[in-house]
Amino acid sequence: MIPRDRVxxxxxxxxxSNDYAGAKRLLEYWLAEAEYTRDGHGILLMQNxxxxxxxxxxxxxxxxxxxxxxxxxxEAMGIAENVGAATTYLNSATVFKAFxxxxxxxxxxxxxxxxxxxxxxxxxxxxxxxxxxxxxxxxDLGRFGEAEELYLKAISVxxxxxxxxxxxxxxxxxxxxxxxxxxxxxxxxxxxxxxxSKAAERMxxxxxxxxxxxxxxxxxxxxxxxxxxxxxxxxxxxxxxxRIYEGN
Length: 248
Hints:
Blueprint: H1 4-16, H2 20-37, H3 40-56, H4 60-77, H5 83-98, H6 102-119, H7 125-140, H8 144-159, H9 165-183, H10 189-205, H11 212-227, H12 231-246
C-alpha cells in the first residue's frame, strides 16, 4: 500500500506553496506506484486528488479522464454504496459541473447525497461540502429554490464544525451569484450586498490563518468581491493569499 498520510501531507505542503506542478508530479508518481502494487484504495485516492487538481488548473480532458477512471475504479472494487464511493461521486460531479455537464453532475450528486445522508452524522462537514457544491449545479439547471435550500443546509452544517468559516464564506458568495442569476444584478442588489457582508465576516474570523486551504479560498473569494465592485476587500484577500504562499 502507498503511504497515503505521508503523500497527503506532502501534497498539502506543495499546495500551500502554490506549487501545482510539484503537486501534479507527486500525485502522478504515487498513482503509478499504486497501480503497480495493485493498491485499489490508493489508486482511487490518487485519482480523486488528480481530478480535483486538474479541475483547479482548468485541464478539462485530464480532469474528466480521472473522474471517469475513478468511477470505474469504484465499480471494480465493489464499493459503490459506501462513503468512499460517495466522495468519488461528489468529486466527479464537481468536475462535470465545472466543464459544462450539469445533467451528469446532478445525477452523481444525488447518488452521493443518498449515501452521505444515510451514513454520516447530520453535522459532518462532508455533508456541508456536498450541499454547497450540489447547489452550484442546481443553479446551472435553473432550480434556484432547491439551490438556496441546500446552501442554507450547508451553512448550518459548517456552523457546527470548527474552522469551517472559509467554507461558509464560499456558500454566502454562491448564494449571491445565485441571486444574480435568478433576479438579475439590479433586482438582487440588496440581497447580494447582505450576502457579501456575511461572507467577509466569516473570512475575517480566519484572517491570521496560514494553511493552504485558506489561501485558496482567499484567492477564490477575491475574484467574487472584485466582480461585485468591492475592490478594496478583494485586494485584502489577495494579500492574505500572497502572504501564505510566500510564507510571510
